[in-house]
Each structure stands twice: as structure tokens, then as C-alpha cells.
Amino acid sequence: MDTCVFLLVLVSLPHIMMSIVPKVTSFRAVVELVSENSRIFSGESLHLRCSIPDVHRSNWSVEWFRGSERLPENGENFHLWNAHIKEAGKFSCQGARKSVVGIIRTMQSLPVEIDVDGGWAILKAPSHPPLVGDTLTLSCRLRGNPPVHETILYRDGIEVMRQSGQNLSFYLSNVTLEDAGMYSCRVSWDARRRTYSVISVNTMVNILEVLSHPSIEIYANVTVFKNNKMKLICHVQYNARAPAPPVHFYFYKNNRQLGLAKSKNSEMVAVDPGQYSCRVKVPQLNLVRWSQPSNFGEMPE
Length: 301
Hints:
The chain is mostly beta strands. It folds into 3 domains: about 25-115, Immunoglobulin-like; about 120-205, Immunoglobulins (Immunoglobulin-like, Sandwich); about 215-295, Immunoglobulin-like (Sandwich), CATH 2.60.40. It has one helix at about 1-20, and strands spanning about 25-30, 30-35, 40, 45-50, 60-65, 70-75, 75-80, 90-100, 100-105, 110-115, 120-125, 135-140, 150-155, 160-165, 170, 180-190, 195-200, 205, 215-220, 230-235, 250-255, 255, 265-270, 275-280, 285-290, 295. Strands 1, 3, 5, 6, 8, 9 and 10 form a 7-stranded mixed beta sheet that branches. A hairpin with a 2-residue loop joins strand 8 and strand 9 (about 100-105).
């Protein structure tokens, strides 16, 4: 009888363990660009680092990927030495560790895109888009160190700024949404009684509003909300830098305010035909934005 019990446990145990232990953790690896630039010249090197947000400090190994391709490199640090153009791509990492049920992995990190440029000039844009009213700084990197005498900045193929001398940085103050576009730079220098001129590939530059114009969503689902209720949601992009001042949300029906200001972007109201809208206000920044009105139900004539 003892032998029978032992065999039963031996057969059942792996099935029980596999059903209760997950193969993938609930947290995600994080990849960080240690080098200064994500766009580099061919022949340059680059450094990435992977971290595993595990409070239990488990012993993780690190796997690296370019796109869906598993790379042979392992470990927390990844170096791209003497880079070739074909080595460009989206790099990510993933943690893995052994357990009694096999290999357990973290979720794969969000990718970092690396560009390898075979040309002579690279236009470096800010890693985070500037806000309306900021100063936009763009720098033209040049392979080698020739005696530059002129640098020109273009937006969408049209000259924006021209400067003489060795300065390779451009500063556009008080930018607006119209300053967004595809930027490039041209650098010229003299050597051996000849003038050389090179131009970078285009780099997209986005400009963000601190507070965008909101839109209102009316969500009326009787199977979700009981007691004849519907939900008003005010969608908006708020891009103020930390510490960001608080945002106030106001909801309106037929141009009449519904209740007091809200700190969240939604409001439950009775299901009722009408024209609904929302207003978003940041008092400390003196910013106010209105949504376009949205009709719900049959409007009374």
C-alpha cells in the first residue's frame, strides 16, 4: 500500500506545481541608455544597462534582444563596440532565473531604439519633446573634428538659422506648435584648399502643449451602471513638469455647470438627453481649455 501511495504522489506532484507556479512574473525589466546618444556614427560604441525591479533581490540572469532576435550577450550591461549600420535596431532585455518548475522570466522591457549613422553629420534633438514656450536646443554632431566655418539649420527643408564659426548648437526660443517638424543641419569647412559640406538625415522634433484641448466622452451602458446613471469622461493631455500644479475638471450640460470642480476627469450623472461639455483649468498656470460640446440622446426642439 505504501508503494501505491508513493507512485500516486510522484505522478500528481508535477501537475500540481505547474498549475500554481507561473512561468512569467508580473513585473517588467527596464533597459536604460547609459551612453549620451541613441544615434551614433558607425565605428562608435554604445552602452545599455538592464535592471530587474525585484524587491526580493532574486538572482536574475539577463537576456538581450534586438527586435525579436535573441542576442548572444548576457549580463546587466550591454556594449555595442565599433558599431555597424546593420547593428541598428530596437534593443530590449529580459530577466530569467531557475526555479523548481523551470525557467521563470520577467516581462520583456520596453525597447530603446538605436540608430547607427554612416554619414558625417548627426542632428541631436532633446530626448523629451519641449513644451510650448520653451527654448529648443539642437546640436549638430560632426564626425572627426574639422575646422567648421558655417552651420545651417533646416526645418522641413527650409532654412531656419545660419551661423558662422565652430558653434554647432542652435537655440530656438519661445517655441510654438508650428516649430514642430523634420529638422536637419548642414556643416561646411575648408581643408586642402577645398570646401566640404555635409548634411545630416532628418530628425523629427515634436512640440507639446502644456495643456491640450480636451474632449468629452459620454459612456452610457445600462449593463455597467445601474440606477439610470451614465459617466462623463474628460480626456486631456497635461504635460507640466514636476511638481505639476493640480488640474480642475468642470462638467456642463446645456452650458450649465454640473456640481463643483473635480480633481478627477470623470463624473457620474443621471441619464438625460442634452449637450455635454467639459472645461479643464490649471489655476496656478492660468490655463483654461474647453472641449467641443457633444450631444446625447434626442435633443428637445
